[in-house]
């Protein structure tokens, strides 16, 4: 029996419907099939009519969707509409920056708007459910799916993930252009060992609670109504079969009211994991754990009815599972939705402008020697534009963009010609066919173009297929002969601006010192070109900050800012380099510290880092009160001054540390942030209110602990901010 105190009438409708359903019809609601060829087969038609299917994914032909819904509503016995699912990961027709790029904007409102517009585009094709946002905290850039993530930090991922949920669902799920959001992949998928997709994850319970769960809790608080299980086993237990994760944590502890869908085939994969003997046992394990819907395994359709009839699964449990699905269908207003063919609108100018703004705010300026950027029009009359990604509308869209319209993409070359074609001469050489190519035959042309130009714009990186699901890399430097291309251009002695488009942080150690400026643009989506050109010429000022640490070497991974201190933290002055060790030096533990002998222990670029064309200074950090009672809040004031000569936007970041606790805590943790715009010379007082609850952490048993004592607090422009103050938490 479904009971819903907020919406008793809907719960009554669900219960009335369940009372009328046959066991076969109940199981049907728990079955999701794929249909992606734009047609409606006779089998699918029959299965919908027979009430044997509750959801279809990947069908985006609006006429087919409308016909499927009509059959479900008018021709099936009980008229139950379908959920139509699709991965709307970073845009639909209009492609936004990859989620990792959006995270670099640290802009809650804009990220929400991005999801809103994407939902509108998707809904216009009949889609009423997206499998987004992906909330897997990840600290391994080798993992291809880091592109779909919101980075390494639980707080940033929570804030932006919740914004996406609000954007997709709005506060009225019955609106024709609101779509159901899905928090995925529950849980721990981002910790996949060695960054190899689908690999096992070993995560201590404390870390699950403190690091991997918070974004899911934030999505629940934002009203998400569906959750997807993950592929990886966590500590030996695949989440699709985990009673602990799905029943104890998600339902009992967090009170999740919606429904859980498996990932693609993750129910029958329980057999490969080695926790189920066969598909039938896999179905039994998944349903018992609380997976409401089977995404394409077909094992619920094959075995659930028998399992109930044999008394192995209680029908009352199936009723509960089905009620949770139907409850969401009612919340979405699907029973009342119009059956007219949905009108498939093209993206409007607004959508492209939003994509441009999001791309602009997601680009991170990593380096800018001698203020080469913004380019000075007078001294940049001739520009060599070199590289495989300078004019490739498809590749700039990034991973997992099934509906992305490459025709909408505006490349760097397009944008440069459009906006500066009259005032500059552009010499374009692709130089490498793809980012993976080793064919250096065009390097001579590239050199000639560079020599004949005032400045070189290299647009390099990774093609979209090098990140995303199952596209992991063990070597995350620029692929192919791109480093050699940089060397070749360096020989020409011209100033070099490197624009990188990629699905993950790259190891840039070998090239960082060879170029003058670096703009890291992720895969920026449809409007990447105009956004980048605006930044190059100073029509806009970079403001993105890294949502993830950039390592100097793959061997440093995992490297992230919120690590624990260890008993022997490295100190800058005492790091030994492998070349400085004398032959036969004696082995002693005295003075030993936690570092690698062959790489500086610091990251190449830290979390929260990003330059601007102006500078910001932080001062006058004050806290009130200095002794704060648990349950109240600390009021924080800080003064930020734009000390440069241009207007700019800064992301003000607030970090804390609990230096002494019953479990060692991270050396810093992000607790709040805001984006501000300051005119040259402008000073502004920024205020944060920090509730003490945010200082709590979870122990091994998942109990929340708020431990009294001294806390440190920093405010500044990156995770290495040095403006510090202390306060004391009293019980
Ligand atoms: C992915 C999910 C995705 C699903 C449906 C799976 O392979 O892991 O993230 O939502 O496919 O396309």
Give structural attributes.
binds beta-D-glucopyranose, Rossmann fold, 731 residues, six-stranded mixed beta sheet, Immunoglobulin-like, TIM Barrel, alpha/beta
Write the layout of secondary structure elements.
Layout: H1 8-20, H2 23-29, E1 31-34, H3 42-49, E2 55-57, H4 62-75, E3 83-86, H5 99-103, H6 108-123, E4 129-130, H7 154-169, E5 182-186, H8 205-212, H9 214-221, E6 226-229, H10 243-253, E7 259-261, H11 269-273, H12 279-289, E8 294-295, H13 299-309, H14 315-331, H15 349-362, E9 364-368, E10 382-386, H16 412-420, E11 425-429, H17 443-451, E12 455-461, H18 482-490, E13 496-501, E14 517-520, H19 528-536, E15 616-624, E16 627-629, E17 633-642, E18 648-657, E19 669-678, E20 683-691, E21 697-698, E22 704-705, E23 709-716, E24 724-730
Parallel strand pairs: 1-2, 1-8, 2-3, 3-4, 5-6, 6-7, 10-11, 10-12, 12-13, 13-14, 16-24
Antiparallel strand pairs: 9-14, 15-17, 17-20, 18-19, 18-23, 21-22, 23-24
Helix pairs in contact: 1-14, 2-13, 2-14, 6-7, 6-15, 7-9, 12-13, 15-19, 16-19
Bound molecules: beta-D-glucopyranose.
Write structural notes for this entry.
- The structure is a single chain.
- The model has no long low-confidence stretch (mean pLDDT 96).
- The two termini are 42 Å apart.
- The strands form six sheets. The protein has a six-stranded mixed beta sheet with strand order 9-14-13-12-10-11, with helices on both faces.
- It has 731 residues and is of the alpha/beta class.
- 27% of the residues lie in helices and 18% in strands.
- β2 (55-57), α4 and β3 (83-86) form a beta-alpha-beta unit.
- It folds into three domains: 86-320, Glycoside hydrolase, family 3, N-terminal domain (TIM Barrel, Alpha-Beta Barrel); 349-536, Rossmann fold (3-Layer(aba) Sandwich); 616-730, Immunoglobulins (Immunoglobulin-like, Sandwich), CATH 2.60.40.10.
- α1 (8-20) packs across α14.
- The protein has 19 helices and 24 strands.
- The structure holds beta-D-glucopyranose (BGC).
- The site of beta-D-glucopyranose has 6 residues, from loops.
